[in-house]
Amino acid sequence: METPALNAALDHTLHIPIAELSPSLAAPETRAVKAIVTLTWPFSSATGSLAFLLSEPDFRLRQQRGQVRVQFAGSSAKHVSESKFASGDEVLLCLDGVEWIKDENKVATPGTSVEFELRFSERLLLKVRLSDSITYIFSN
Hints:
This protein is mainly beta. The chain has one domain: CATH 2.40.50.140. The protein contains two helices and nine strands. It has helices spanning about 5-10, 75-85, and strands at about 15, 30-45, 50-55, 65-75, 90-95, 100, 115-120, 125-130, 135-140. It is globular, with a radius of gyration of 14 Å. The model has no long low-confidence stretch (mean pLDDT about 85).
């Protein structure tokens, strides 16, 4: 389902590489990351969350901080879990509403990730390109 207002909101964001993600990033609400979902942690009813490992579309950049783990909780988790996207799908994730979590519990994954995980709870603007359609997810 393509929504012109959400499409326009994402079109006005500056796309940045995953390696540039940092809590000191200026104006995160104007930034977005384009990535490929490479791993999924399914919805957990115990924690009320799910997570994805997002990686740079160019696999050569994944070795140089080209991956980030993204957690979804609250209403964001509900909307993301209903969308049914999975590994291999392309996403455009706006950083508006992001919480930065120091990644102290290193999950062993191929490649190298940035030092922080991203967490979205109630505010989320996400565009997912599935194999046959485009889905917009908005949570406020």
